[in-house]
Amino acid sequence: MELFKIGFLTVTVVDLLDILVVALVFYNLYRAMRGTVAAQIFIGLILIILLSIVAQAVNLKAMGWILRTLTDIWVIAFIIIFQPEIRRLLSTLARNRMVRMFIRVNVDESIEEITAAALELSKKKQGALIIIARGTGMKSFTETGVTLHAQISRSLLLSIFNPRSPLHDGAVIVNDRTIEAARCTLPLSANNRAGDLVLGTRHRAGLGVTEQTDAVAVIVSEETGAISIADDGTLTYKVSVKELRTQLRERLAASVQRSLQSVREAMRPQQ
């Protein structure tokens, strides 16, 4: 359905909807990247695309050729430049409730071992970083460390995070009842503060991995002995062992059960 004309351009309802959808997509991408270097590059790419459209509209052949050459490779450049942001976006989609209902999470038996180890490490003020996998694959992170494939236990965790252990520096990745690897390197969060708290490397690593995956991180501070938990890019600082146990159960087990229950209710025939 034609609405109006601008020179040689005919504008329809579909065109307006198309423009609106594209504008919303670009706006949300900018919001996700606001405050980072990627946001400035993103604005630059948008300006190149707009200039290319204007050059073609007014028939600037030389300028149009240069900009068209740039826009031919912008998709590849976009993927390379925004790889961390794209990865974070895909991880966010993986955390969707409808997706998570198909993911098997079976770490109930590991929670007691982790909380017991965290309590003792906290008392001794020995730093620790324990990453508990949920649905997102952690292979890219486990490959940076030492592969163990050992059954999780409090004693093993205490041994790994003993300051004299060669494996203590880095993260332990847990999958169900198995410690997949130790001394793993994780991406650091761009955030170096949580409220008034200045985050150290260990806390930033725990926060960073939860920004890119749906894993849960348990962090024990070497300086204060405080236990923290990070999930979905949010850090909860200084929790008690009871709170840690409760939150792990809620985040690792109850979320899937709630998703399944909501789907069952949605599929239940109306009376």
Topology, please?
Blueprint: E1 2-6, E2 9-12, H1 13-33, H2 37-57, H3 61-72, H4 74-81, H5 83-94, H6 97-100, H7 108-124, E3 128-132, H8 139-142, E4 146-151, H9 154-160, E5 171-175, E6 178-184, E7 193-194, E8 197-198, H10 201-212, E9 216-220, E10 227-231, E11 234-236, H11 241-267
Helix pairs in contact: 2-3, 7-9, 7-11
Short description:
The chain is an alpha+beta fold and 271 residues long.
Q: Could you describe the 3D structure shown?
A:
- It is built from eleven helices and eleven strands.
- Strand 10 and strand 11 (234-236) form a beta hairpin.
- It has 271 residues and is of the alpha+beta class.
- The strands form three sheets. A seven-stranded mixed sheet has the order 4-6-5-3-9-10-11, sandwiched between helices. A two-stranded antiparallel ribbon has the order 1-2. It has a two-stranded antiparallel ribbon with strand order 7-8.
- The chain has two domains: 2-98, no CATH class; 108-265, DNA integrity scanning protein, DisA, N-terminal domain (YojJ-like (1).
Q: Look at the helices and sheets and give the structural class.
A: alpha+beta
Low-confidence stretches: 101-105, 254-264
Binned strand content: 15-25%
What is the overall shape? elongated
Through-space gap between termini? 42 Å
At CATH level 2, the architecture of the largest domain is 3-Layer(aba) Sandwich
Question: Quick one: biggest sheet?
Answer: 7 strands, mixed
Strands, total number = 11
- Elements, N to C (H/E): EEHHHHHHHEHEHEEEEHEEEH
**Number of discrete domains:** 2
Mean pLDDT: 78
Helix content: 40-55%
Radius of gyration: 24 Å
The CATH superfamily of the largest domain turns out to be DNA integrity scanning protein, DisA, N-terminal domain
